[in-house]
Amino acid sequence: MSQKEIYVIKANGQRLPFDQNKVKATCIRAGASNNLAQRVSNKIHEQIHDGTTTKEIYNMVLNVLAAEDEGQVIKHRYRLKESIMLMGPAGFPFEIYVGEILGHYGFSIKSTRTQVRGKCVKHEVDIIADSNLTDKRYLVECKYHNSPGIYTGLKEALYTHARFLDLSELFDKEMLVCNTKVSEDVITYSKCIGQELLCWRYPHDKGLEKMIEDKGLYPITILGLSSKELLALSEHKVMLAKDLLVIDMNKLSRKTNISYTRLQRLQNLVRRILG
Question: Which domain holds residue 174?
Fold first, then answer.
């Protein structure tokens, strides 16, 4: 007799069959070995029941990884999406982070949050960037969500394109960047009008998370810091975890009131996360 299928509940309320392979794949993406990923997915399969939420599964995975020596660092990488969602409340503007990422991928960032006069009205443009590869000037619109289960929809793509049309004399290309997945309508529309997308898991194998992982551009929020530590670091413009590897620790300790020993431990953690 076949086993009864278990359904889990996504953040948006949707019910879908539990897929053990998805748990394994996300662990591998975070850097787990095949054996560790299989052990984690097996333990999660043993613990869940019909109606378990994806948020509960997420926490289960973190707990299982934390219990494994090999998983101590991997659990931090596994928290990437959550860490990005923590950036806004922690005082790190998403568009500044996006500018850091684009700057590592062939763009020169000219400005952020700039007032620009269009043919009809004035607009606040999130990022103005020049491509060093094509010499094209980009209007970059950033859409940030700080809670899971939200898709970036057609409205944001339409809004970005409308802004681009009014500013078309000043820009060659438009780009919509978001920290969530996008709807199929957004993908269809963007292809039709030539709007570039950079979102969670899109483009496939070249999405926002892949760009971050490939060059180790993890936000400081991935380190599991206290709210007080996050506030102190945000006030001193320390946004990327790897910034801790090049900053003078003595000066940073004096400025932030975070102990030198604590900063050293964070440095060591960053080195392990970056591998």
Answer: 94-214
The residue out of 51, 78, 105 marking a domain boundary is: 78
Contact partners, residue 203, CB within 8 Å, separation at least 6: 197
Chain mean pLDDT for the chain: 94
End-to-end CA distance of the chain: 46
Evaluate the CA torsion angle 254, 260, 263, 264 in order and state its sign: positive
- Identify the residue whose tokens are 């931090």: 76
pTM above 0.85, yes or no: yes
Q: In what order do the strands lie in the sheet with 107-117?
A: 107-117, 122-131, 137-143, 173-178, 196-198
120 within domain boundaries: yes
Strands 122-131 and 107-117: antiparallel
CA atoms of 19 and 8, how far apart (whole Å)? 9
Residues 116 and 182 in one domain: yes
Task: Say which residues have a Cβ less than 8 Å from residue 184's Cβ, sequence separation at least 6.
Answer: none
**Are 101 and 217 a contacting pair, CB within 8 Å?**
yes
